[in-house]
Amino acid sequence: MKITYYGHSCFAVEIKGKTILFDPFITPNELAKDIDIESIKPDFILISHGHSDHIADAVRIAKNSGATVVSNYEITEWLNKQGVSNVHPMNIGGHWFFEFGKVKCVVAVHSSTLPDGSYGGNPMGFLLETDEGNLYYAGDTALTYDMKLIGDYKQIDVAFLPIGNNFTMGIDNAIIAADFIKCEKIIGMHYDTFGYIKIDHKEATEKFNVAGKELTLMKIGESKSL
Ligand code: NI
Ligand code: MN
After folding, report:
1. What is the domain count for the chain?
2. What are the residue ranges of helices labelled H in 89-154?
3. Ligand 1 mean position to 140 CA, how many Å?
């Protein structure tokens, strides 16, 4: 499993030769200005909810790449209206087998209005079960006791958790979330992009260390293999 960070909550993950892109928000992100989005050609785009900081570049990248876009029903309907026809609608509690593995949609406690004010359904997280490991992408969410269900349901090898506070859970709650899902390897997301969510990197990684967990804060444009 190879992971590439494109800033904010946007990651590409390569599994079984397929590239899965999560929550594309690159061109409006000043911190990600060196990323050339024309070069991003995923096979799948997974979108957790409708907020622009998760969907801003979805239409462009979907049209460029022909990727299958997986999201909730309301968001896939909206994408249809923007000319993106290759979509797979899902909703919380459901799972589906794709070429790279199984995707299960799980609860996220947040909101989901689309950029033009359209109703964006309910926000979700994604649990990916694959031959190359299991991954939990939490999306934007508060800490919720439902995360215990995710940890009971599957052994999770790596989890992408929001840590920026203000709009989502912050570092302290993310450490509890990591306990709930029984995962030691955490990749931070949804931090530093805006003034409200700037974090102290050293303090964040130290707090995770004290809790016996590893927090990775990837550099934008950086790739790593797990
Ligand atoms: Ni959001
Ligand atoms: Mn967000």
Report:
1. 1
2. 147-153
3. 5
Characterize the bridge pairing of strands 124-130 and 101-107: antiparallel
Dist. CA 50 → ligand 1 center (Å):
7
For residue 140, the CA-to-ligand 2 centroid distance in Å is 6
Model confidence pTM above 0.85: yes
CATH of the domain at 94: 3.60.15.10
On the 0-12 / 13-18 / 19+ scale of CB atoms within 10 A, 138 is buried
In a domain, 33, yes or no: yes
Specify the pLDDT at position 160: 98
Does 158 fall in a domain?
A: yes
Structure tokens belonging to residue 191: 């931090």
> Domain for residue 226, yes or no?
no
Judge residue 125's burial from the number of C-beta atoms within 10 Å of its C-beta, 0-12 exposed, 13-18 middle, 19 or more buried.
buried
Q: What is the pLDDT of residue 145?
A: 98
Instruction: Give mean pLDDT in consecutive 10-residue pieces for the chain, a chain of 226 residues.
Output: 98 98 98 97 98 98 98 98 98 98 98 98 98 98 98 96 98 98 98 98 98 98 96
Find the domain containing 190 and state its range. 2-221
Q: Which residue has the tokens 């992971």?
A: 3
Contact yes or no for 192/222 (Cβ under 8 A): no
